[in-house]
Amino acid sequence: MATKQISVFLENISGRLADVTRILATQGINLRALTIADTADFGILRIIVDNTDHAVSALTKEGFTVRLTDVVALEISDAPGALAEVMELFRTKGVNIEYLYSSLEKNSSKAAIILKVENLQHGLKIVQDNHLSLVDHL
Q1: What is the CATH number for 21?
Q2: I need a surface site. Which of 66, 67, 77, 108 has the fewest CB within 10 A?
Q3: 7 with 64, same domain?
């Protein structure tokens, strides 16, 4: 099953990230994973939270432009080469990974990676066929 990611479009000005995190905090929404990419004029904050619908509503109400995207959240061993094995598997199956970031896991022997793949259904089938573990508690 895919994980819902929220993309928040931010003007590249001082304080916008603080605004987003304040809104989430005051609404009792917990950040589970995040990454930000920027250009000269704007940034895209990608987040996974514990209450997606509430976060989207709160951010939209405050005037932020948001978009939901389905991503694959995998649990892998926290060991050298674990990510390389997964990347090689996706490469051999012809799946383009558009971007990737990680999340902190409560279990110190595991790591969580979040993948945006070009073809979600193909990516999820590879996960299933190769008995990879999806993260179900981000």
Answers
A1: 3.30.2130.10
A2: 108
A3: yes
φ, ψ at 17 (rounded to 5°): -65, -40
Expressed as residue numbers, the domain containing 78 is 71-134
Residues 74-103 pLDDT 10s: 999 888 999 999 999 999 999 999 999 988
Q: Identify which of 137, 135, 4, 136 has the alpha carbon closest to the alpha carbon of residue 67.
A: 4
Look at residues 69, 91, 125 and tell me which one is the last residue of a structural domain.
69
Q: Which residue has the higher pLDDT, 13 or 101?
A: 101
pLDDT of residue 1: 84
Q: How many structural domains compose the chain? A: 2
Could you give the angle at which helices 16-26 and 52-61 cross, rounded to 10 degrees?
A: 130
| Burial (0-12, 13-18, 19+ Cβ within 10 Å), 74 | buried
Whole-number Cα distances in Å, 103 to 32, 37, 55, 100, 107: 7, 16, 18, 10, 11
Contacts (Cβ under 8 Å, ≥6 apart) of 115: 71, 72, 73, 74, 90, 97, 99, 100, 123
